[in-house]
Design goal:
Number of domains: 3
CATH architecture of the largest domain: 2-Layer Sandwich
Strand content: 15-25%
CATH class of the largest domain: Alpha Beta
Number of strands: 17
CATH superfamily of the largest domain: Dihydrodipicolinate Reductase, domain 2
Bound molecules: NADP nicotinamide-adenine-dinucleotide phosphate
Length: 435
């Protein structure tokens, strides 16, 4: 790394002074002596950029040069590192990072969208120029999962990584379970409390978790970042009654990102899951994130912590800056970008496992036999069947679980069931994961 020989201050330019940017500046100010002790040099903020210059950000910006344009900031003379904390996979964030690399500056970013879409190309560009891209903050906020996988587990072959990668969804699901309230109600509250954005779709539709999963997959398996192969489902269809049934069946409902090596290739999926109450991940509630990695020598490792927020995210950004200040160098995704090996994506239809299905059916003779026949015709074996109460002639919820089966067979059975006249709502399915 080009700065390893330097002993003067590490000069950084920060683009984006919102939640994360302001947090980074506060941390650097408060821990300046500690950081100097740990890496033998100070970290000095020489330039900053955001949209509105007049906004009070709770930090002293008087010694840094102001830029209205973050891309121009990337070319500020004498800068060692450009810290991109704007967000978005395209536009100013991408242009800032690209120009920074062209000008020979290291990059630190918290931008999962950018890395999910352009991570491999950016890594190649950086490594060709002998530069680093630090992105610890992009996945699971304050949890050091990138370093955990890339450095801490570097001696292992990793077969699986899964986790709770979106605190907003985990908060909503936890509230739904503990209060019995419906999704829309809890989402509205989460927005008031600042746990969910005004436009919450990136979070609740699973896209944010999918960005993070695509990055984790690359680090875990040494493959190019392949966001388009992630199967993504969000939490909009999880209903209050699903929590009652899950509880009765011994499960908790979590939105998980799962990356696994299988005989069909690499599986990458984000969707609501039922997990046994006794699984460690089932106990991770509220805004907390968790990641579990399975390595061949280390066995199972669990990381838990805050996945977002000013302090935790700043902690991760500054850890990357300290690596650069110390002159530590690691290939971006664990193996050099040119050697990331393409892997076959495993299609969702090939997933094997058990399923929870909730149907709204008209309570009359023969309906259950029709459902059972649709399952049998696809060789799907039912494990449990729950119907609480009767209401002849009216729609009632009916829940069933299956033994292990293939997703393709399950989808065919559900399509047949959905077509039945006595099934009055689309069937809702939640995959069961036995961790
Ligand atoms: N918030 C978290 O807890 C968290 C956790 C992990 C990762 N991240 C990632 O960190 C990044 C930043 O998130 P954030 O929550 O800090 O966002 P934020 O609070 O919305 O801040 C974004 C910052 O970028 C500035 N900005 C936006 N467009 C700009 C433009 N065209 N030119 C110059 N500056 C521009 C904004 O300026 P103004 O302030 O003047 O409007 C603001 O300072 C994102 O990639 C996000 O995904 C966030």
């Amino acid at each position: 790394m080009s700065d390893s020989h330097k002993t003067g201050p590490l000069k950084i330019a920060v683009a984006g002074l919102g939640t994360v940017g302001a947090g980074v500046l506060k941390l650097l100010e408060r821990q300046a002596d500690l950081i100097e002790q740990r890496c033998g040099r100070r970290i000095e903020v020489v330039a900053v950029s955001a949209r509105s210059r007049g906004k009070d950000r709770g930090v002293d910006l008087s010694t840094a040069e102001w830029y209205d344009d973050p891309v121009a900031l990337a070319a500020h003379p004498g800068v060692d590192v450009v810290v991109e904390l704007i967000g978005g996979s395209e536009g100013p964030a991408k242009e800032t990072v690209e120009l920074a690399l062209e000008r020979g500056r290291h990059v630190v970013t918290a931008n999962k969208a950018l890395l999910a879409h352009h991570g491999t190309a950016l890594a190649a560009k950086a490594e060709a120029a002998g530069l680093a891209i630090g992105f610890e903050a992009a996945v699971a906020g304050g949890i050091p999962i990138i370093k955990g996988l890339r450095e801490g587990l570097a001696g292992n072959r990793v077969s699986e990584v899964h986790g709770i990668l979106n605190g907003t969804c985990n908060y909503i699901l936890t509230e739904m379970r503990t209060t019995g309230r419906d999704f829309a109600d809890v989402l509205a509250d989460a927005q008031k409390l600042g746990y969910a954005e005004a436009d919450p779709s990136f979070d609740i539709d699973g896209v944010d978790a999918a960005h993070k999963l695509a990055i984790l997959t690359s680090v875990a398996f040494g493959t190019p970042v392949d966001f388009k192969s992630v199967h993504v489902e969000g939490i909009r269809h999880v209903s209050a009654v699903d929590f009652d049934y899950a509880d009765a069946l011994g499960y908790r409902i979590k939105l998980l990102g799962i990356a696994r090596r299988t005989d069909h290739g690499i599986e990458q999926r984000v969707h609501p899951c039922m997990v046994p109450k006794a699984a460690p991940i089932a106990a991770v509630d509220g805004v907390f994130n968790a990641v579990i990695a399975q390595g061949d020598f280390v066995d199972r490792v669990l990381f838990v912590g805050r996945g977002a927020g000013e302090g935790p995210t700043a902690s991760a950004v500054v850890a990357d800056l300290i690596d650069i200040a110390r002159g530590r160098s690691t290939p971006t995704f664990g193996v050099p970008a040119a050697q990331l090996s393409e892997a076959q994506p495993s299609p969702m239809e090939a997933r094997r496992g058990s399923y929870y299905v909730r149907l709204m059916v008209v309570d009359r003779p023969g309906v259950i036999a029709d459902v059972a026949a649709a399952m049998r015709d696809q060789n799907v074996s039912m494990e449990q069947f729950l119907q609480r109460g009767r209401a002849p002639g009216e729609a009632v919820p009916v829940v069933l679980t299956t033994h292990d089966t293939e997703e393709a067979a399950m989808q065919r059975a559900l399509a047949t069931i959905a077509d039945k006249e006595s099934v009055v709502e689309p069937p809702r399915m939640i995959r069961i994961e036995q961790f």
